[in-house]
Design a protein that fits this description.
Layout: H1 4-34, H2 46-66, H3 73-101, H4 105-118
Helix pairs in contact: 1-3, 1-4, 2-3, 2-4, 3-4
């Protein structure tokens, strides 16, 4: 059973990471929305699409594993932070694609996907309010 100090530390870590990821994704989306990207949307890039699917699956699986009842609370927090970082990776990938192609459409979609994956803070079972 985790101590109260460990639980509070986990809550601070997850809360801070969650806010940082949401802020990063909002800034990336704002940059893409207001930026000077006026090229037509390029055809899909198979490598970028594969990377985006991989990041999305990582976010889903890490979040799911973090809520497992058999995992240690410290590992659950680590997996939860990994899920948030994977979601942030989608926004970064989208921004890099927009800068490379001059078109913001794909970048905004990837950033929106990352924002959706990061919208709700992961709740490991070792942390109160989990479920």
């Amino acid at each position: 059973m985790p101590s109260q100090a460990e639980i509070e530390s986990a809550q601070r870590t997850l809360g801070g990471t969650h806010k940082a990821v949401l802020s990063l994704l909002a800034l990336l989306a704002l940059n893409l929305f207001l930026g000077d990207f006026d090229e037509p949307s390029p055809p899909p890039d198979p490598q970028a699409t594969t990377a985006a699917v991989g990041l999305a699956l990582a976010a889903i699986l890490l979040r799911r594993f973090a809520s497992s009842p058999i995992i240690r609370p410290s590992s659950a927090v680590f997996l939860s932070v990994g899920a948030l970082v994977s979601a942030a990776g989608l926004g970064v990938l989208g921004t890099l694609l927009a800068l490379e192609t001059g078109s913001a459409e794909t970048g905004l979609l990837f950033t929106l996907a990352g924002f959706i994956f990061a919208l709700r803070i992961p709740r490991p079972l070792g942390v109160p309010g989990a479920g």
